[in-house]
Amino acid sequence: MKIAIGSDHAGYRYKEEILAYLRTQGFEVTNYGTDSPESVSYVPFIRQVAEAVAAGEVDRGIVLGGSGNGEAITANRTAGIRCGLAWNEESARLTRQHNDANVLSLGERMMDLETALKLVAIFLETPFEGGRHLERIRQIDA
């Protein structure tokens, strides 16, 4: 599976940890930045992740910031993206099972690193249930 990842300065530390984790798990990862904890706007980094997912260059995306809210909003402005903001295991699982999310948004200020890594694993391992959820996804994407 190919993964795109991006963050602003507020998500930089966790992005680097998640990037290392993904590589040890055998994922092919493209890092869209930022590449330091210097203050930057998240928009260009998140947009690149979303566009890579939407274009089919990668299978899934992960975006990070302080809260993850702005990052999720930015990603969801790209056609074909269903970005879910997760804060616990259940929210990460449901964003895949029910919403077929193709991008995960996390807030570094909202959780510890162990939780963030667990949410990434859940996001990548959980399949979409389809069934009754499929029609809703079609409506969202229309």
From TrEMBL:
Signal peptide: none annotated. Keywords: Isomerase. It is an enzyme of class 5 (isomerase). It comes from the Bacteria. GO terms for molecular function: ribose-5-phosphate isomerase activity. One of its GO terms (biological process) is pentose-phosphate shunt, non-oxidative branch. D-ribulose 5-phosphate binds at D8, H9, G66, S67, G68, N69, G70, N99, R109, R132, R136. Its EC number is 5.3.1.6. Pfam families: LacAB_rpiB. Belongs to the LacAB/RpiB family. This is Ribose 5-phosphate isomerase B.
